[in-house]
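Could someone model magnesium ion with this protein?
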Amino acid sequence: MSLELQGLVKNFPAQGGGAEVPVLDGLAATVERGRLVSLIGPSGCGKTTLLRIIAGLEQADQGRVLLEGGAITGPSAKVGMVFQQYALLPWRTCLGNVELGLEMAGQGAAMRRERARGYLDAFGLGEFAGRYPHQLSGGMQQRVAIARTLILGPQVVLMDEPFGSLDSQTRNALQEFLLQVWSGQGDTIVFVTHNVDEAVFLSDEVLVLSARPARVLERFSITEPRPRDRTSEASNAIRREILGVLSSQREM
Ligand SMILES: Nc1ncnc2c1ncn2[C@@H]1O[C@H](COP(=O)(O)OP(=O)(O)OP(=O)(O)O)[C@@H](O)[C@H]1O
Ligand SMILES: [Mg+2]
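Reply:
Sure, complex below.
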């Protein structure tokens, strides 16, 4: 079973006398359960819009999203989302942020606190449970954001350039961290990135999207076993191919 994107069309209405903005143009793809699939494409091509549609936060004009055969028509606990930044509540501690979803789901205080503490420990953040987001590094904040999403046990995790604002060393460390926590959970991950190296290091598959309106231009399968060597000949070869497809989409 899987996540199926079927013929997704999305146009944003014209504003201030401008023309309608076509964002998705019959986009179709299947993401097999338990896989990590990256979406890569030009800036503004519709990646965030696509994730919002998969999350049920936005409606497609045509087409549908099926998860394990059932249509997604609104927000659901089965689908979790990790955003690029500003995702933590600044007035809540780490622990309070990780507890948030459990609280909204009506779980009792003692139980949710214990579970959230367990997650923070597992994520190497145990000693920061009482700190506020502004007291943490960017990498730590993103680990809290990932914990906050994974604790809810989603079947699909949508990640929108989650490491985009981090320096490259922290970014590499968080990629490895994501693979570690993911192999423990085995959920499906749809990961949006601008970074070809990141996509090739992380993914089972990379879908390259066209310039807006987005459709899938090409699909690359990456079978190199993990942990991967970022500088291997196989990684370089696939990077070269992806960059070739992407450069065909560059605006003149
Ligand atoms: N709510 C909205 N109303 C009108 N237009 C929108 C809305 N949301 C997005 N757009 C437009 O849709 C297009 C795609 O936006 P989207 O944010 O999905 O792109 P993206 O691929 O995520 O871009 P980036 O790589 O820069 O994050 C853009 O032209 C944007 O201006
Ligand atoms: Mg975006």
